[in-house]
Write a structure and sequence with these properties.
This protein is α+β, with helices and mostly antiparallel strands. Helices cover about 45% and strands about 20% of the residues. The protein has one domain. The protein has helices at about 1-20, 20-30, 40-55, 60-80, 140-150; strands spanning about 90, 95-105, 105-115, 120-125, 130-135. α3 packs antiparallel against α4 and α4 crosses α5. The radius of gyration is 15 Å and the shape is globular.
């Protein structure tokens, strides 16, 4: 029975991923108000902002993983070029999935943290067929996820 629940969760997350029209607005709309950071204190401030804005709407699972991801962003910034962490946004959608996403010239990159304890990474390229979807179960390497997030 557990296996069926996992399949159901993955199919729910994949629904918008499989729908080209869902993401077309991201590529057509050039207006953007991305979050850019220049030091790790700003990442901490963004995390505090997320908790203030969504704290009552997100689960403990989501808060923990958001914190881990933002911590990995901070590690990248301290180890590499601070300009590497630029232009990302976040929001909580109608399906209670917390999304961290960024648009680049290559496409749209997402980290999806579902309220039912499922995490996914996706990349939807501007070129047809250029897609990637990875589900994370346990033992998540947040640093690798963060590098992957900013790679494209």
């Amino acid at each position: 029975m557990e296996h069926l629940e996992e399949i159901k969760r993955k199919s729910e997350i994949m629904q918008p991923y499989n729908s080209g029209s869902f993401y077309s607005s991201f590529f057509k709309n050039q207006e953007s108000d991305p979050k850019s950071v220049s030091n790790s204190n700003e990442i901490t401030d963004l995390l505090i902002e997320v908790i203030k804005q969504y704290g009552l709407k997100i689960t403990a699972f989501q808060k923990d993983h958001i914190s881990q991801i933002f911590s990995a962003f901070s590690e990248i910034q301290d180890k590499i070029d601070p300009d590497r962490l630029t232009s990302f946004k976040y929001f909580l959608n109608e399906d209670d999935e917390f999304l961290i996403y960024r648009k680049s010239s290559l496409g749209l990159t997402n980290i999806i943290i579902h309220d039912e304890e499922c995490i996914a990474f996706s990349f939807i390229g501007k070129n047809p067929g250029e897609r990637e979807l990875i589900f994370f179960d346990e033992d998540i390497d947040y640093e690798i996820m963060a590098y992957k997030f900013f790679a494209k």
